[in-house]
What does this fold into?
Amino acid sequence: MSTTLTYATFLVLFVVAPIFGLSVAAQRQGLPLPREGLLPTGLMVVVALAYTTPWDNYLIGQGVWWYGPDTVALTVGLAPLEEYLFMAFQPVLAALWFYTLRWPPVHPEGPLPGRARLVGTVGWLLVSLFGVWFLTDPSTYYLGAILAWACPVVALQWAVGGHYLWAARRSLAPVVVLPVAYLWAVDWYAIELGIWTISADHTTGIGLFGLPVEEMVFFLVTTLLVVQGIVLYHWVVDRWQ
It folds into this structure.
């Protein structure tokens, strides 16, 4: 499917507009986002840009994905400017959804399961190793790149407060699932429009309604990183206080 939409226009319609809508909704609910939510959200944006930029540029250079002709305005390195904005806006979108649904932040009741931290940390590290192994095969290269890049950070989060995250899992599920489902739909639409194209040579060919499983995993783990990072931020601050 061809498109007359540029990446910038797409970003405004499907990322910036929902951010604005969630901001208005949070303000109407009287949520104290400027004070309690601004710092952790800002930290997530900085970390996302710093950690994702070299990975993103490298995979573009490897031909894992590319952009449609006349859809981008300016390229910085190998990635378009709009890509960096998407990197920054996605944590903001996830954070606003978190604060809209889960204010005050999650406080699980009862004793925290200590074993969950060890099991979660080891489990995510094992997934990271699978990612490294997947890098050796062209058809699983993109999936391996996602797992090897993201899962060590998830493992670190669980090493810090996995017992807390496990105790709060039921409260956090909708905070993760709903924005992930939205981002899947947005990503699918962008691929259908030809704003970006995922290489068939570097993917498994498995997907859902035309959305590659690699893209599904990407938006799942990145949203998980943001939500867990915010939860752990508030948990650490509460412990200090």
